[in-house]
């Protein structure tokens, strides 16, 4: 028990739950008690987007390599979750060409989310295998290719995704609290990975790849693990997102949302899970404020973009610059960058 | 450096043509204005997104230029219009002549000719002038270039001006093909140009040309060979090939080392 109590993984997870988790819980509670339905949706989507930002953080935050592609795995999760929960009768009319096992399938919300996370994880593992072997610059470019390739597939695979029209008719099974629950799962996974041995070594490799290799870190393997884990978390949050928004199309896994999730990581600081959450809060607050003060199309993105530029000038490490809450007790050495 | 906002330079050039046409200027003046506006915008862009962040990581510069691109796109949206604006091209560009039973459009001839001239001029400039050599040097090692007494900031500003002018030039031909201008028009052609230059090898002029031909070749090949029901997936297949090339040649097909040797 003592060894368990001293494990940095467990202490990290507990610290995150006790701070960020508690804040998110209070936000969800207040929203459920006082918010109007429209605002409740905003809060629910904020909680989901926290999970998405954490998914990006698992790979990019620890490896130091920007991925543009992980929203593709959110898409995989969203389509998987939707196809598993839409009633078969509706699927028969809307998607007559759907393969048999998918056409008849209908499972509850939680199993659908778990299956979505697994499917996205397996696909991410397969794609990540060659991708993580690439060198840093080429890798970033290739993730860009991943994003576009998946978009083209979502946009054209009429039999399964209904193409550009998108899917609809997902039964309403989620509220703010299930969004919260899965966001917390993402938080704990991301924080525990960050503090775990592979996460620690991966961060070391981001600081100095040659030195990390020399100390025995298998950088390619570590990147692949983080990439796959991130893909699974994105898939999970994708299915939750689909269950919360009930209808969606391929564009929601393409450039514009990728830009806003990356903006969150830049603003909050991508090297810590708390940074991802603070960034998600900052971007959501900023765009909601702009929307309420002056509802002009295009003003929101401009505000976010200017926010990015100010942060890059003034605080290139992001608002939190890698800070994480700690569980009281003996501290372990940190990766110095 | 990779400038994500390069597409917006094309869009700026196209809007310049739109307003010049509205002011009743002749086609040649419109084109000149597009080139000048592109160059000017590029210089301003360098001041805002690149100079304050000199020496920052690849990802940081990618983000800052991404942000500038979003600002510009949405400014067009708010200040001009989300809708497409038509700009008529002079009649002769749309006509075609016959060569041995094959119809050739003047627009294609003009596009090819101007591209070749621009490419030739750029090659001469980069290889045989002090400014051009300084530019190549600054791209490889900014600090050492400065130590050699070259005003590297000015050289980079010139590089942006030239790339902006070329974007303006591209705007003339993109506009002549599609006839309309809208806030997001720069995105697709520049995404392709970007992919082509990465595949060919960033930092190498011949690489960009090789990459451009290769990407176009792959697309046309897929257009011809793919069955109709799979045509929608063309871009996915093309990118798959591109990612595969990146996998085996991370520096691009024509790597800088090869060119130096």
Structural class of chain A: mainly alpha
The SSE order of chain A reads HHHHHHHHHHHHHHHH
Order of strands, main sheet of chain B, comes to 1-4
Q: Percent helix among the residues of chain B?
A: over 70%
Low-confidence stretches of chain B: none
Give me the strand/helix succession of chain B: HHHEHEEHHHHEHHHH
Rg result of chain B: 19 Å
Beta-strand portion of chain B reads under 5%
Overall mean pLDDT score of chain B? 82
Helical amount of chain A: over 70%
Shape of chain B: globular
What key phrases describe this protein's structure?
heterodimer; A: 337 residues; mainly alpha; 16 helices; B: 261 residues; two-stranded antiparallel sheet; 4 strands
Produce the secondary structure layout.
The complex is a heterodimer of chains A (337) and B (261).
Chain A: H1 2-6, H2 8-34, H3 37-63, H4 71-85, H5 88-94, H6 100-104, H7 109-131, H8 136-156, H9 158-161, H10 176-195, H11 197-207, H12 209-214, H13 219-245, H14 255-268, H15 273-293, H16 299-314
Chain B: H1 6-22, H2 27-50, H3 58-80, E1 85-86, H4 91-94, E2 96-99, E3 102-105, H5 106-128, H6 130-140, H7 142-147, H8 152-178, E4 180-181, H9 187-200, H10 205-225, H11 234-248, H12 256-260
Antiparallel strand pairs in B: 1-4, 2-3
Helix pairs in contact in B: 1-2, 1-8, 1-9, 2-3, 2-8, 5-6, 6-8, 9-10, 10-11
Q: Brief overview, please?
A:
Chain A is mainly alpha-helical and 337 residues long. Chain A has 16 helices and no strands.
How would you describe the overall organization of this protein?
The complex is a heterodimer of chains A (337) and B (261). Chain A contains 16 helices and no strands. Chain A is mainly alpha-helical. Chain A is globular. In chain B, the strands form 2 sheets. A two-stranded antiparallel sheet of chain B has the order 1-4. In chain B, α6 packs across α8 and α9 crosses α10. The two termini of chain B are 22 Å apart. The chains are: A mainly alpha (337), B mainly alpha (261). At the A-B interface, α8, α14 and α16 of A face α3, α9 and α11 of B.
